[in-house]
Design brief:
By secondary structure, this protein is an alpha/beta fold. It has a single domain, classed as L-arginine/glycine Amidinotransferase, Chain A (5-stranded Propeller), CATH 3.75.10. Helix content is 24%, strand content 19%. The protein has seven helices and 14 strands. The chain has a three-stranded mixed β-sheet, with helices on one face. A three-stranded mixed β-sheet has the order 5-6-7. The protein starts with 5 loop residues before the first strand and ends with a strand. The structure holds arginine. Arginine binds next to loops.
């Protein structure tokens, strides 16, 4: 069943690929900012059409990756844990989001002392916080998140540079409830052998995605428990989710993918 969601998004009015901090980014290739904005607007309106609340933060000149709002905060039970970016090119984003939260009534925003790329590397299952490391978020940020949010954290190691954030390799389809465990989809090959075994133990019924699903950033999905927003190319994954009773909704994110992002990267979830 879908549950109402509250998202924070940042329109890509200053979107560009001016630097390369992941293998998807090629500053020599052209980027169509108007098209990126149109694709982003479509994504925002898709969430609104499901009845979800979408707030917008003002984008800032000189911060072309600020559209990827998911990297700027992890919110569980209204407790906000901010971010600390690995790349100097993105570090100023963290303060803009911290200020947004404070101005919107979230008074005790905790800012991390370790590199922490927020929902890029953290996924809430309703019971535990899955936490990625290997490329961006520091493993010590996992322990820091556990203390700040008061939730159990399970560390997972990413090993393929194309899947540099946890949210490029795994997403939560449905949070755990009193009667059902969480459901997730993930691409096992993006993880270390030990982390694959952890995922197999925690989620024996997971949707295991393949290379074709992953290489269009199909694991960068956003689910409300029923509607699952996916990049348009993720048709095979969409079919498998439909078999499980989900409603896949395909959106074109081709311009945003030039920076290494998809639907989830653009979508910071605010959990009450
Ligand atoms: N260019 C951005 C970076 O490399 C993309 C971030 C995508 N966000 C995400 N949640 N995976 O940091």
């Amino acid at each position: 069943m879908p549950t109402p969601r509250h998202y924070l998004m940042c329109p890509p009015r200053y979107f560009a690929v001016d630097y390369a901090i992941n293998p998807w980014m090629d500053p020599t290739q052209p980027v169509d900012r108007d098209l990126a904005l149109a694709q982003w607007t479509r994504l925002r309106d898709t969430y609104r059409s499901f009845g979800h609340t979408v707030d917008e933060i003002e984008p800032q000149p000189g911060l072309p990756d600020m559209v990827f709002a998911a990297n700027s905060g992890t919110v569980v039970d209204s407790q906000v844990l901010g971010s600390r970016f690995r790349a100097p090119e993105r570090s100023a984003e963290a303060e803009h989001f911290r200020r947004w939260f404070v101005e919107h009534g979230y008074r005790d925003v905790i800012m991390p002392s370790k590199i922490n790329e927020a929902e890029g590397d953290f996924a809430w299952t309703g019971r535990v916080l899955l936490a990625g490391t290997g490329f961006r978020t520091d493993p010590e940020a996992h322990a820091e998140a556990q203390e700040a949010l008061g939730v159990p954290v399970v560390s997972l190691r990413l090993t393929d540079p194309r899947y540099y954030h946890l949210d490029t390799a795994l997403f939560v389809l449905a949070e755990a409830t009193d009667s059902a465990p969480a459901q997730v989809a993930y691409y096992p090959e993006a993880f270390s052998p030990g982390s694959r075994r952890v995922l197999a133990r925690l989620f024996p019924d997971a949707v295991r995605a393949d290379e074709a699903d992953a290489s269009c950033l199909g694991l960068n999905g956003v689910s409300d428990g029923h509607n699952v927003v996916l990049p348009g190319e993720a048709t095979a994954l969409a079919a498998r989710l439909a078999e499980r009773g989900y409603e896949p909704v395909l959106v074109d994110i081709s311009e945003l993918r030039k920076a290494g992002g998809g639907p989830k990267c653009c979508t910071l979830e605010i959990r009450k």
